[in-house]
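General statements about sequence and structure are easier to judge against a single worked case. In the encoding step, the backbone of a single protein was reduced to a row of integers, each denoting a local shape. The record that follows shows the chain in one-letter code together with its fold in token form.
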Amino acid sequence: MGVHVEVEFAKSYGAFSASLLTQLGPGVTQALIDPIVTDAFQKMGLMDESMAIQIDRILFEKTGARSERFERLISEFQRAPDAMLQQLWQGEDSHVQRVLLRNHADAASWPSFKLCEGLLKEISERCEGAPLQLIKALGRQLLWAPQDSSGGPTNNPKLDVANAPLLTGFLVQACDANRWLQSRDHLAALRQIKAFDPTWFELGLRTGAILAMKASHQQTEPPRV
């Protein structure tokens, strides 16, 4: 599914490059090898959008190559978190309305596994520092949570489809997500959510990852003097 493979891609890139250098023998330089490895990784990325995003980042780190998709990622990264979430959730022209809710207005049932509560709990327990502080600071802005007539939260069957991709992207990017992903059929549940609307799933996953990246970047950024 592409949600926890970034480290393996980085290892694979180095191993593939080293193997080619060994097999092709003396006189072959890294500059000749890089285009071959880059082409192979880009073709792997055609299978899955979230996988492609991770591959684009690895290729940029290894070769400096910037695809159109990576350029879009950089553009989104430069936006403030609250602005990203406002476009995602708020108003009739929001992404959740245009991409998800209107396209499935006639759906009889939505995949629902109560993943959101578990994901929030896992983030609070496994993540720390700036990523966790960002989650707390965003508060209700973070998720799509329609309210009832009294202003309280509703038990909405669409919550997992709407919110789980973003929370998963954040968890995977911000901390070690393997324990949660490999337990209690969570991966199977995420696959069902993705199958319900792949476009929305990738959008939510990417948004969550960008939020975590922004928090980590702010944490490591040197103080201004």
